[in-house]
Amino acid sequence: MATSAPAVADPVVAVPVERRPLPPAAPAAATAAAPAVPESSPLPPRPVPAPVPQPPVPQSPVPQSPAAVAAPATSELPASGIVAGPTTSAVPAQTAGPRPTLPPVPVAPPAETDRPAPVTRTSAPVPPLPGTERAQRHSAPVPPLPGTERGARPSAPVPPLPGLRPSAPLPPIPGLDVPVAKPAPTRAERRAAMSPLRRRLGRSAVAIGVLVGLVGAFYVGLYFYADRSTDRVAALTPGAPEVLAPQLQVDETTWLVLGTGGPGAEGPGAVTTQLLRVADDGDSAVLLDVPPTALVDTPECRTPDGDLRQPVTEPLADALLQGGPSCLVRAVQQLSGLRVDHLLDVDLGAGQAAGSAACPTDALPVADLAMLANPVRAASVLLDAAGDLTLDHDTTLADLRSLGATLRDLPAGALQRTSVPVARVGYVPTGGTTAQVLLDGAGNRDLFDAVIRTGALPEVADDAAATTAATTVAPEADASVTLAPSAVTLTVLDATGDTTDPTTGAGATAAAALQAQGFVVGQVALEPARVATSVVRYAPEAVEQARTVAAAVPAAVLEPSDAVGGGVQLVVAAPDLAVQPVAVGAAVPTTSAPATAPTATCG
């Protein structure tokens, strides 16, 4: 029995499918924003050429296998336009023999239409877009960048990068380029090489340097300790309205110098008041003595307790004793118009104070080489000075040292000293018991105005000097008593300070003794000012009466003055003033006032 060959299935031939790209979707925004373009004339369809018939190829029928899957002639393309074929074929492998082929797919002939053959025409030119009808213009040239309007300039050299430095030349190689340096000797080697004398000198220099440093530190500490130990008060009012012409007082320095607490004195008699005006260059100074009992107008001021003190007319010393340093400064500025820059109060009653009532600035410490060479003495002087002085808050011990050095170094005649003009001394108000001093208002104004303007005392005219010499009559050496005691009327002032009641004390005792000799005692009062010796004050027209009183009181000194009010005053300075009988024709004693010795700082 003949076996037939197994039937071989023909392979499946895939029909090619024409792929056409999908038209791109136009953006909605672009479509909406694009301007309308007029459509051109429609083009006729192109003629499709007739397919060329091909002769049929004889093929043997291929039996269909149940497992064979015929590919469809047409298929729906997916949206992407790509047809995915099978990854594996179900057709079995071809065996030996000719490969069978599938018959061709018949193509339908093109449909016959009655339309005429299209005529090819060239489309019309596309019209320009709206807004571009004008002729094409070239764009303007690009303007130059700011700062490049001028001609081209060569660029500056490029600065070096931060942190980079040009490389330095390589150092020489020790032993090759330069000889090998020997190591520095150690401290022990250097000391061993030194001679014994040089080592001793080095030790001595170190010891001296340490000693000098310790001494300097001691003096610096001593200065600050003494400065902080000094009493200080709030007293200055440089911007007060009573200061006159402050623009003329910028370069000058005014000190208010007080001497308080003098031995054996109390109340106003224990106060000494001076105004010291020092020039800016330190080459000249003016010292003005103001009587502590002078009547002055004290403006409104603050007491040390902070209470407000009302304006009052009072003796100058009462402004300090009752109102405090601030009221005294205001009273002095009201009297003089000077701006007080520093306050110095020297306690004359202290055991170490070297000043006197006539010149409190003598108590200022002197820093010389002798004192600096003795630290114990330096400490004693500075600490004693700190305990005896009272300053304002703006004054230091350095200012005091500078003031003392300036006053001691002034040449002869560079320090001018005078007292303020007085209109009346020993003035006792009606019903009063204390003598006061009335100042000459016009004379004081001229004096202080000259000091403010020029920093010196006013010049005295020749006629004024002659008038003063004529009115000031000095006692004659061979004078005698011409008036009996009963023709002399006088005032007795008690300046001892032993009592506050004029009816008791040395003044009352002297008045009683004079009355017993026939003198007429008009009034007995207290003299609060400090008086060194008993004085017989008299006016130029009362010289005969003064001689009679001086003959009765030999210890008293005749003192002519045009400020006693035309009478005679006996100022009792000692509690045991002797009074003796006097007769007409008796000799007048020639006792004169003791000469004022020059001082170190007041001339």
From TrEMBL:
Q: What keywords is this UniProt entry annotated with?
A: Membrane, Transmembrane, Transmembrane helix
Ranges annotated as biased composition (Pro residues)? 41-64, 100-109, 156-168
Region feature Disordered, mapped onto this chain: 24-168
Q: Name one Pfam family in it.
A: LytR_C
InterPro entries associated with the record: LytR/CpsA/Psr_C, LytR/CpsA/Psr_CW_biosynth
Biased-composition ranges, Low complexity, are 27-40, 65-79
Looking at the UniProt entry, the stretches that span the membrane are: 204-226
Query: Locate the LytR/CpsA/Psr regulator C-terminal domain: which residues?
Result: 488-572
PANTHER family xrefs: POLYISOPRENYL-TEICHOIC ACID--PEPTIDOGLYCAN TEICHOIC ACID TRANSFERASE TAGU
Name listed for the protein in its UniProt record: Transcriptional attenuator, LytR family
The organism is Klenkia soli
